[in-house]
Amino acid sequence: MIHYVCKYTPVELLNAFGEECAVLEEMPENFEMSDQIAHANLCGFGKSVIQAVLEGKVKQLVLVNCCDSARRVYDIVESTGKCNFLYMLDLPHEDNECEKVKYAQAIMRLKKAYEKFSGKTFDKEAFLNSFTENETEMKPYIGLMGVRVTGILEKMIRDNIQMDVDNLTCTGGRQLAVVPEQMRQMDEEKMFLAYADALLCQIPCFRMNNNTRRNQLYLDPNLKGIIYHTIKFCDYYGFEYASIKKNIKVPLLKIETDFTSQSAGQLLTRIQAFAETIEGSEDMDPGKGISEEARKKMESGIYYVAGIDSGSTSTDVVILDQDGKIKSTMIIPTGGGAMMSAEKSLDLAVEKAGIKKEEIVRIVTTGYGRAYIESGDDSITEITCHAKGAHYLNPNVRTVIDIGGQDIKAISIDENGAVKNFLMNDKCAAGTGRFLEMMARTLGLSLEEMSTKGLEWKENIVISSMCTVFAESEVVSLVAQNKDVADIIHGLNVSVASKVGALAARLGKKNPGEYMMTGGVAKNPGIIKALEEKLDAKLYICDEAQLCGALGAALFAYEKCSVQRLCL
Asked: Does residue 86 have a pLDDT over 60?
């Protein structure tokens, strides 16, 4: 097996030696081995290649000198001696006639190198037979663009988006315009020149000096949305994303990874929310999931629905009656498991409502723990549910800010409460509820005490680091300097507001309307005041702010049942 990393790699040439080729798409859990011999700022993909080699998963590898990281990876892998065959292909950054000749020569050098290594002979017929025709069907699709993705991430995207997904990244969208019959009549030099021409005439990589033809990817009328992937420490594709964002008219989701599997949960939430934005929630399918037993209860005219928001900090429940009015709510701390906390919170909400659990005909779950709640009839992301709940509570809201236990979300919604766009900060705990909990613990205060004490500030203290660990060190240092606790808390409030405000402003400026803050941090007047100053706008805060996600889930359940009632 020969592994490769770029769509410009002459795969057909390698097939002519009877070798199978595969894209190197390892997504390790961590870089424990590669970090010992690679620079800390080497891109995640580079580290994944080194990790795969060190783990013995790659024995033959063809790289291309497309960037500095690729060159570093080659040097490191070569020094390990772990690869039986390692080759760096000289890839041009132009597609003019001169560069095509040079690339044809580079391909021929690879051919000679593999002949010498393997002792095998190049088979021209096998080479020509390895070309496949690309059949294109004109139908709506989601474009997966940017830098290469792993098979794990691509599968996650395909599994959660009903529409077709076309991989147009570094290793996807490989299309060669060749006519094997014509090449069969050529001598070797002309044949490889035609081959080089076909390779370089693909839709250009963003690393190519002239990449204007990439506009074809964005102007396709069948393109209904873009998922744009970047890798930490990769300098190229961030520029293209910024350009696309200005001009594209279809929904756009940016996801950044470090090429490990550690952030899969957060990525799944983003991808599912993006799918709901484009395709709508499956929960709204009027024929899906309504049991015969539930239909009979609905015929009686008295029934209830519930929404459960399983978060990292709390598990919230909202029960609605048959008229869509709130019957009961419950908020409890999330305990040792999502399932146990959900059942307990639901039981308490049922008891509070004075009803029987059997009278609940539909339950929709949301939040990070939603997939583990067996009692749910359907599951919808918290992004879509917060938008739904916010619209119910205030139809004038156009931007929802949710500060959760482990992430921050800014959600842009339309006049009907549907998600137009959203942004998330899920890289670390900076600015989240966990961040505030840790700072309160460091100061020896409860969250309630901390939420009001910062309003009494006098000295404007700046907390320069948003990293939770470093910010804690700053707070400890400020306490040692006998700085007033109120001033320290105000500095923390401003730092959180700066982080959250920057996220929300990117959506709100293009989406005029009221701002609403949801989640447990909406009870913190210090954060609210600092955030209002950053946004230069008033935040709408209501008593049900922490229940917004559960309310949205309950509303989806209610609407599903309402549609079904019309069919009875």
From this structure: yes
Q: What is the reported pLDDT for 374?
A: 84
User: Please, which residues have CB within 8 angstroms of residue 383's CB and are 6 or more apart in sequence?
Assistant: 269, 273, 276, 409, 411, 419, 422, 424
Render 474-505 in DSSP notation, one character per residue: HHHHHHHTT--HHHHHHHHHHHHHHHHHHHHH
> Distance from CA of residue 29 to its chain's centroid?
17
Q: Which helix (H) or strand (E) holds 152?
A: helix 151-160
Q: Per DSSP, what are the bridge partners of residue 143?
A: 166, 226
Mean pLDDT confidence for 84-99: 92
- For residue 60, the number of C-alpha atoms closer than 13 Å in the C-beta half-sphere is 13
Cβ atoms of 558 and 364 closer than 8 Å = no
314-321 and 326-333: which strand pairing?
antiparallel
One-character DSSP codes across 266-293: HHHHHHHHHHHHHH--GGG-TTSS--HH
- The count of other CB atoms within 10 Å of the CB of residue 450 is 25
Burial of 242 from C-beta contacts in 10 A (0-12 / 13-18 / 19+): exposed
**DSSP class per residue in 53-100:** HHTT--SEEEEE-SSHHHHHHHHHHHHHT--SEEEEE---S--SHHHH
Helices marked H in 323-402:
338-353, 382-393
> pTM of the prediction?
0.79
- What is the distance between the alpha carbons of residues 188 and 172, in angstroms, rounded to a whole number? 28
CA distance 284 to 557: 8
- Given CA atoms 6, 10, 13, 15 in this order, what sign does their dihedral have? positive
